[in-house]
Amino acid sequence: MTRLFVSAAIISLTALTASTVWSGPSEAPILEGAVKQRLTLDGQLLKSFPPVTINITFETGQGKRSGRYKGALLWSLIESAGLRDTAGKNPGLRHTLLVTGRDGYAVALAFGEIDPHYEGKSVLLAYEEGEPPVSVSALRLVVPGDAHGGRSVRDVVRIEVR
Ligand SMILES: Nc1nc2c(c(=O)[nH]1)N[C@H]1C(S)=C(S)[C@@H](COP(=O)(O)O)O[C@H]1N2
Ligand SMILES: [Mo]
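Above: the input record for the complex with molybdenum atom. Below: its predicted structure, written as tokens.
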């Protein structure tokens, strides 16, 4: 009797958790803007790119943070989406990326920072590991070389190519 009650409680709890956590496919982060192909940044797409792991340390208002993050290179995503603007000299260098978190916090990166022909920095959209841990539903921007954590956007929901 008790066991039945416990399993019923577990089943209803599971159902409740599932309905609370499930936010639908339209809620997945997106990459859009001045690109040929808008991307839905779900786990399947992110894991289709070669995974890159990076150790970073940055300063925050609450002291130093260190973490190891695994994710997809932002450059791979941009290459896959394709820049719409192909006119004139070095079109990429005119563009920026605006990365926004669920809370509206937003930071900009320059195209030239991540383009392998220029600074070629391994900026990641991290979906595994990290502290606090990231996941495909709580992506984090990882910007190696930044002294402060200000550009390490938590819970990325949108990347706009401008
Ligand atoms: N979405 C979002 N990401 C954010 C912030 C924020 O307010 N919102 N603050 C940034 C700042 S200023 C810092 S120092 C780091 C702090 O990282 P932590 O929250 O993991 O400690 O997060 C960055 N990422
Ligand atoms: Mo910060």
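Notes for the reader.
Residues 60-61, 65, 101, 103, 105, 148-150, 152-155 surround MTE (ligand 1) (CB under 6 Å).
The longest strand covers residues 63-73.
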